[in-house]
Design brief:
Helix 1 runs antiparallel to helix 2. This protein is about 40% helix and about 20% strand. The protein is α+β, with helices and mostly antiparallel strands. The chain starts with a helix and ends in an 11-residue tail after the last strand. The protein is globular, with a radius of gyration of 31 Å.
Length: about 350
């Protein structure tokens, strides 16, 4: 903004100086004819200066409008789509690094040969050469997820059998799908959609963000990619507050601010949540991770080519029916490190 003001001031000064020189040279001639000519020159100079002032004012206004528009565009916006699940899980096919995914499927059957559950876990394969370290990490991630899915079904099957619940028909499903968000020489970012239905009123859907250094395969934390972690936290919380104030028929959980703080800085049943409405039993089950350096297990996020997106899953800060919430932080805010933006 200061640079624009200096340029405009210099432009105005140059025009005024040129007009003054024209008037001064003409006025020095001294004859009646010269006087008339000088008067005309003065009038012309006055018109020139007036025109210059108008032009500068107009240019200043345009610059100010541009700055205001840029500031508006740079403001973090709450993202509540009509179908947020579809938006968050969208797979980008135009990433610089090309990726293919394949399904690893297995069906579990009962003694009668009927399918009880379908387990499906996607595996990501990088088509380009030179990313061996990252590919090794992706393979391990896929293997771990598949093992967890097997364990989840084993626990559920044991529960069903212990309670003599009917286990016939294709009732249950465990699925893990991959949605690419960004893949380039700096960062490899994707979201998994973890779907499971193991009985109950409705299935469960959880989004997990995975962000890796493309060259080393190291998993990145939110602190790794942000310029000012505390400012990012404040921006996210302010955005959620503003959104909450605009709602007439919806509210976040009463203690959602405690939850957001805990997600960014670590939960502590003893301190961070002592003012919340959690019961003593709930607090005992809350891991005490306050002060931990890593936010990997607490916050779900991903990067696109132009913004950072922080995801709040169902039940994080609002009920199941509301769905997930995502706060979008444009790179123009300066909150994301330049090497990633």
């Amino acid at each position: 903004m200061m640079k624009n003001k200096i340029l405009l001031t210099r432009k105005l000064a140059a025009v005024v100086l040129a007009a003054a020189m024209t008037f001064g040279v003409t006025a020095c001639k001294g004859t009646d004819a010269d006087t008339a000519e000088g008067t005309a020159a003065a009038e012309s100079a006055t018109e020139t200066v007036s025109a210059a002032l108008s032009a500068v004012a107009e240019e200043t206004g345009t610059a100010a409008e541009s700055r205001e528009e840029a500031a508006e565009e740079a403001t973090a916006e709450i993202f509540v789509a009509e179908d947020p699940d579809t938006e968050i899980a969208e797979f980008r096919k135009d990433t610089a690094i090309k990726v293919t995914v394949e399904d690893q499927k297995e069906e579990k059957k009962n003694d009668a040969g009927e399918v009880l559950v379908t387990i499906s876990v996607q595996k990501a394969t990088i088509e380009d050469k030179g990313y061996d370290a990252l590919q090794k990490v992706l393979d391990q991630q896929s293997s771990d997820t598949y093992e967890l899915a097997q364990e989840a079904w084993g626990d559920m099957q044991a529960f069903l059998e212990d309670n003599d619940w009917e286990t016939t028909g294709s009732l249950y499903g465990i699925e893990d799908t991959i949605s690419m968000k960004r893949g380039d020489d700096r960062i490899f970012s994707y979201v998994t959609t973890d779907y499971s239905y193991l009985g109950g009123a409705h299935p469960n859907v959880v989004y997990n963000g995975y962000n890796y250094d493309t060259k080393t395969g190291k998993r990145l934390t939110l602190r790794d990619v942000t310029e000012d972690y505390d400012s990012l936290y404040a921006q996210v919380l302010d955005t959620l507050r503003a959104f909450q104030e605009e709602q007439e028929d919806f509210t976040f959980f009463e203690d959602y601010e405690d939850t957001v703080r805990g997600m960014f800085y670590g939960f502590s049943a003893e301190e961070d949540l002592e003012d919340s409405d959690m019961t003593a039993a709930d607090r005992e089950e809350t891991p005490d991770t306050a002060g931990t350096a890593s936010d990997i297990d607490n916050i779900q996020w991903y990067l696109t080519d132009n913004e950072l997106v922080v995801i709040f899953n169902r039940y994080d800060i609002a009920g199941y029916a509301f769905g997930p919430t995502a706060v979008k932080i444009p790179f123009e805010t300066g909150l994301v490190k330049e090497i990633y933006s």
